[in-house]
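WARN retry 2 of 3 for item q-0093 after timeout on previous attempt; input resubmitted unchanged.
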Amino acid sequence: MGKAGFIALIILWLFLASVAVFFGIPLVWLILSALDPNASPEFKIPSTISMENFIRLGEPVSGVPPYMWIVNSTIISTLVATIVTIASILAAYVLTRYSFKGQSAMLTAFIVFRLIPPLILALPIMILYRMWGMMNTIHGLVLAMSALILPFTMMIAESFLKSIPATYEEAAMVDGCTRLGAFLKITLPLAAPGIATIWLLAFVTSWSQFVLPLMIIRTPSLMPASVGLQFFFGEYGRVEYGKLSAFSILYSLPVLIVFLIVQKYLKRGIAGLVTR
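OK item q-0093 returned
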C-alpha cells in the first residue's frame, strides 16, 4: 500500500469513527439515562446504577400504566401486519396470474395513494369515523392503518409473486391439485421470504405511526406507545428523562424481537427484492 492509499485509509476510518460517534452517543445517553435515578439532559455517567426508572413504569400516567401502551402497540401492529400481509398476497396473486381491463390504472392508483401524506387523510377519516361510530376504537385504527400501508406492501408482494413462474402451479394442477391447493402448497412456500418481509415492514410501519393514532384514539387506555410518549412531557416543559428513556428502550424491544424471529427469511426476501 502506497502513501496515498494509507492516507485514504486513515481518512476512511476517521469518517467511519465520526459516524459511529454521531449515532452512538444518543444511544449511550439513552441507556445511561434509563439507569440513572436522577437523569437529566446532560450526558453523564450515573453515580448509582438502578432499575428504578423501569420499575416506575408500572405507576399510572394519566390513569394508565405505560406498559399498557406497549401492549396496545403490539396488538395493533400485529393485527395490521397480518391483515395487510394476507390482503397483499391475495391481491398480488390476482394481479400476477390474471389480466383484466384497467389493471395498469389500478396499480398506478395504488402508487399515487401511497404518496399521499397521512396527515391529509386524517381529517376525512375522522369525519367518516364520526359518522360510522368508529372513533376511539382499536378496530377503527387497525382498519385505517391497514388501508394506509396496503398499497406499499401490495407492490412488494406483486414483485415477489411475479418472480414465481405460473408453470409451477400449472404442473401441480395437472397432477390433480386444485388452483387453491396449488396456491397453498406451491406458491406460498416459495413466497415465504417475501411474506416475512412484507409482514415485518407492515409491523414496523404500524408501530411507528403517530398521526392516525393521535387523531383517532382519544382514551389513554387505548393509545399505542407512539402516542402515549407525549404524557412523559409534563406541564411547563418538565420532562421525566429517566422514565422517558426507560420507556423508549422498552418501546424498541418488540420490533427487535420480531426482527430476530424473521431475520432468516428477511435477508432472503430483501435480496430477492433487490435483484428483481
